[in-house]
Amino acid sequence: MKKLCMIVVIEFISRVLFAQEPVVCYVSLKGSDNNSGSIEKPFASIYKAQEYIRHQRSIKPGNFTVILRGGVYELAKPISFNSQLDPDESGPIEFKAYPGEKVTISGGKILTGTWVKVPDHPSVWKLNLTSTFDIVPHFRSLFRNGTRLQRASSDTLISDGPLPQFARLYKVYDFAALNQLEKNSLNVLSCFKYSDHDLDDLTDIDDAEALVYGSWEASWNRIYKIDKEHKAIYFRNPASYPDGFYPNPRIRYVIENSFDYLNKPGEWYFDAKGKNVFYYASSGENPNEVQFIAPVLDTILIAKGDGKANKLVSNIKFSNIDFSYSGSAWGVNEIHFGIPFIHQLHDSCVSENKKRYPWLDFTQGFSSFQAALGCGSAITLEACKNWTFDHCSFLHLGNYAIGIIDYSSDNTISNCYISDIGGGGIMIAFNAPGGKLKWLPESISPTGNKVLDCVINNCGVIFPSGVGIGVMQANHTLVRHNLIYNMPYVGISVGWTFSLTLDNYTTYNTIEYNNIHDVMEKLNDGGGIYTLGKQVGCLYKGNFIYNVRRANNSIGAHNNGFFFDVGSCVLKVDSNVVFNAANEDKRFNLTDSTKTEFGYNYWEKATPSNKALKDIIYKKVLK
To answer: Which ranges in 117-245 belong to alpha helices (H)?
Structure first.
């Protein structure tokens, strides 16, 4: 026995002493891509570091590290990985910040040129981008010294319902009628009446867009024309649902990016044709003395293996790095036609409708029937395994921060900070609503992924139906100890099947010990935690949910601590705390409490009087 122990000890010491040293290279904004990549002679770009590491991995497998010196790395194109250039058998790679230095990988670009005052508008300045910013046709976000600015915007307005000639074509929640409307009457989804004289004075509509709030979704619509005689506004692209589909036909909307509404300090307006940015300055402010950044890339990082061939991109880690400034998906128009199916407008539908309505332009706007999954993500992992993002920040992005999608497994997002996000925080999803698809392998469902100890807040700033964390058609996911707050819609959403009986991929997920508060701030028909469909083996335990809001003039069903939506069943809910929900603490739709296993939970309508009492409640439940 002693001899065996000695052999084990000697083997361990040998492995430690003779372990292969990691291959390390450095990147610095002061470097050159003609350098060797040493700390004394660093590379200048992340792309060159990737090229160097790929070459080293092709020579000999091992451990590889890319160390980034401090600064902002503006990308000309997304950082990309694939299974051909980054085979998973070649050893792990870590990208990390140099100790004590702040590193930002940016999909944005600093605006350059000279701002000049606009005649007859003493507070408005103009910057022409014709010669300096010709790489994108349009941008919908602008940041001043790291703070997101509001586009020139109307107040929140209320519609006056559908146009009279369309009102009889469908009823409230008439999903069946949507299929027919999609085929030959998309104009019904592209207009409504406005109230009183709200839009009578709107003249600048060349680049104007409307954010139209439904109940559980919101769409962006490019304005086509204003018919003042009939009080009608027409759009160039369809919404997912027409005005009048929800119980209250008076829906909220906001007009953005019209010079007519450029009237408050800090607002801006973009003239796409002339490539001019207009900015309303504060008293005494000179915009030439501050920094403005606009996003130029929708994607900052994309990794894509070959899931069908089981060739994955694996074992890559990012540590202590910020990812900032991405653009927003546009020209995504999804039509919902009969639960549980959803699809993007297909070619024949587009062609047929354009014949009838030649003003329609499907490259404009954005509509998505639920959770804004169509807006994509700044970081996308497809067919990836054993990726880690640890102590990273994701800020000022225009879509979801991170998407872990088809064929991806065992990836971890830990100790990260996600804030000021256009879409949602994190989506772990195979985006195919419904049951299992027999012609696809089980491995297409993301499996074994983790979101741990992250802070996620202020998402949905462009696409309000984005969720904090979405787990759709994924299995064995662990979502633990995350803080989620200040969300326009749902905190955590799990499930993507509108059925009590359909077997699906949303199985054996654990959602536990998350703190979710101040959610549902703009939309309705959701909750702190939202579930959908049959969920074999799923556990919701120890979550702390409070301050579930309901916005003024919002429409649709109630907002709850837990909302068990269509078909939610065979899941377990234990040791959770819910209080101060705008409506019921828990609610069921086309399911009921007998379909779920409930342990001991604490449900209260009112708000406990102080934080100490909240903590007492939480400890009591956990016992």
So the answer is: 175-184
